[in-house]
Design brief:
The chain is mainly alpha-helical. The chain is 51% helix and 0% strand. The chain is elongated, with a radius of gyration of 18 Å.
């Protein structure tokens, strides 16, 4: 084992990784990040969440994508607001 290999093992953690994909844009209506699909509150609390809470969020993420794919009416809808 080289020195870098031994250092890497120190930093390995048995916790759920963040779903962040570094595309941090909050959808104005759903208040979800368009990159990782987490809410602002979930993003802010992620480092303090228990493994069970993180797993719950991760399990729910696939269900959230449809909310962002729904067409919102484009320019015409924005002008009506």
């Amino acid at each position: 084992m080289t020195t870098s290999d031994s250092n890497d093992t120190v930093w390995q953690r048995a916790e759920i990784e963040s779903p962040c994909v570094k595309i941090c844009v909050i959808h104005t209506e759903t208040r979800l990040c368009t990159g990782c699909l987490r809410s602002i509150d979930e993003i802010g609390a992620w480092s303090r969440m228990s493994a069970e809470d993180r797993a719950g969020v991760m399990d729910d993420l696939p269900n959230r994508g449809a909310a962002l794919k729904k067409r919102r009416g484009g320019r015409a809808a924005r002008l009506k607001r």
